[in-house]
Structure formats: C-alpha cells, structure tokens
Amino acid sequence: CSDFQFFSDGPVSVGMSMEIASIDTISEINMDYTATIFLRQRWTDERLCFEGNTSLSLDGRLVEMPWVPDTFIVDSKKSFLHDITVENRLIRIYPNGTVLYAIRITATVACSMDLTKYPMDKQTCTLQLESWGYNINDVQFYWTRGNDSVRGLETLRLAQYTVEDHFTSVSEAVYETGRYPKLVFHFELKRNILYFILETYVPSILLVVLSWVSFWISQSSVPARICIGVTTVLTMTTLMMGARTSLPNANCFIKAIDVYLGICFSFIFGALLEYAVAHFLLATIANSCNVSDKINKVDSEKNINTSSNRKDEKSKHSGCSSPMTVMKRLFCISDCFYVKNLYHIDNYARLSFPLSFIIINVFYWVYYLYF
Predict the structure, then answer these.
(1) pLDDT of residue 1 exceeding 70
(2) Which end of the chain is more exposed for a tag (fewer CB within 10 A), N or C?
C-alpha cells in the first residue's frame, strides 16, 4: 500500500525521546551550543506487520526503504550524522507494525543569550524538532514519556555551567505553507561563578587595595606614589581587556562584569587623582599664603610711616578699601587653615575609599545575585 493510503486513516502519531550524550561547547560569542544526541522516534505502520514474537532490526543500508518521518532541528546551524564505522542509524520493526527509528547526530544549535548579568547569568536554551514537509493533518508529534523523554543531562559535567532544570513541551509551527507539529526541549544553564571570581574579581579587588597603599606614603614621595597609581591603572586596563576577549564584541548591553571592572577602575583612578589634587592644592595655597604675607608686610610698613595729621583722611579712605583688605585676610586665614588639613587628606582617603568600596560591593552583589 502507498504512502497516500498510509495517511488516509488520519495523522500518524510519532513519539520521540532523546538521550543527550554530550554538550561539547557553549559559545557566548556565536550564541550557540554543540551537542551530540541520540534521537529515537516511534510510530506504527500497519503495512509492516508480520507474524512472530521477535523484532526485526535493519541497519543503515536498509533505512531508506520504509517510510520515516522528515524530522529536522529548527535552529540548527550545522549538523551531521555519525558514520563511523557505519551510519549510526537503526530501524527496528516489531510484529504489530511498531517501528523504532534511532539516529546519532551532532548539531550546533542557536541559543539566544541574555548576558546582562554575566557571569552570574542563567541561560535557557531549546532544542526544537519539527516536521519538514508533513503538516499536522499528516503527522502528530508527542513525547513518549513527557519530561522524562530526555535523559542524560543528570550525568553531564560542563566546564562553566550546571544544568539546573529541563522540561519538554508540545506546540505547532505556523508558516505560510501550513501548520506543522513541533516538539521543544527546554533546559536551563546556570554559570559557575567560581572561575570568574578567581580569574577576574579577586585580581581586580587586589588591584584596588594596592592602589590604597599610596595613602600611607608621604606626599613628598612623588615618584613612589605616581608609580603605584600608574601601574595599577595600566594593570586594571589590561585586566578589563582580557575579560572581554571571550565575549561578543558587537552587543548593546552592559554586562555585570563590565560594571564591576568599571567600579574598580574608577577607584584606582580616583586614588591616583586624589594625590594629584592634594599635591596641586598644597602648592597653590602655599604660594597664595606667601604672596598674602608679603602684601600685609608692605601695608604695615606704610601704616607706620603715615603721619598722625593724616589719620582722619586715611580713615575716610580706608572706609572704601577696608572690606577688600578684610576679605583678603579672611581668605588667607582660611587658606592657611586648609593648608594644615590638606596634609591629612590621606587620612580621610584611608577611611572613605575602603568604606565606599565596601558599600558599593554590597549593593552590587545583592542586586546581581538576587534581582
């Protein structure tokens, strides 16, 4: 009997199950993963019924003879059927006409990833199976054992991920040519953050702490403080560039690791800027006080040489100039007051920098881990 008569009795129910042999790579740059799977499909073809109590197995050379579903992986970028030592395909026919079709394939499948919380992110990838030419009037897909239809994930050991959850679903794909059966396997991957803590977070924290060493060095030791500041800035820049090498360059979102590296870079650059500002203010205010002292000395000498008969006229004239003189003196007094405190600016930095860094870290980890 022909395939037309085979479908005339209604759609053929095809049950599917899978076993994940391995997930070789998960690429954030290409937004895909590569997996090797055993795909098993079952259906009943009454044309293949025979008498007996044992099943009949056919190897890859005879697979093309009976009817098989035209199943394909929807988001597959590339895939291949294993053929060593022979094609890894098998058909087993049972006396009641039930057919088991098993194949071993390796496929690279697209997986859209949201990296805004990288490396504290969770990614949900899918493996979608559809019928290429047979619509829902010809073929119906279903999972043979529901969520237990996919096995092998429990024994997988991935380099950067842990499989947290997985489930299956049944849906339909709608195109211009019709409605087609679809089976979807969902699995959730959680990234292991320990590697990134040791590789990126700890070095960046140590660089920030190293930049604070300059607060305990005398402000007169210009070469030592500049050397520490510049070295930590350049090292942090190199660390930031290295952290981006394994990530896609063309993306419009800021990742969690970028935020943290930016925070660390800001603190390191701030430590260098703190010394530059303090050193500049010390030199500027010291010069200002010296000039003010000279002006006051000249004014006092003029006041001593002024004759007593011009005191009234001087007092009238000083009525206009006294506010300016008072402002200059107040400015000098305040400047001299801050000159003394500028020598203690490092003391304030020793407390404010670590305290603010700890507070920002608390907000950072709470937000990206729990929100």
Answers:
(1) no
(2) C
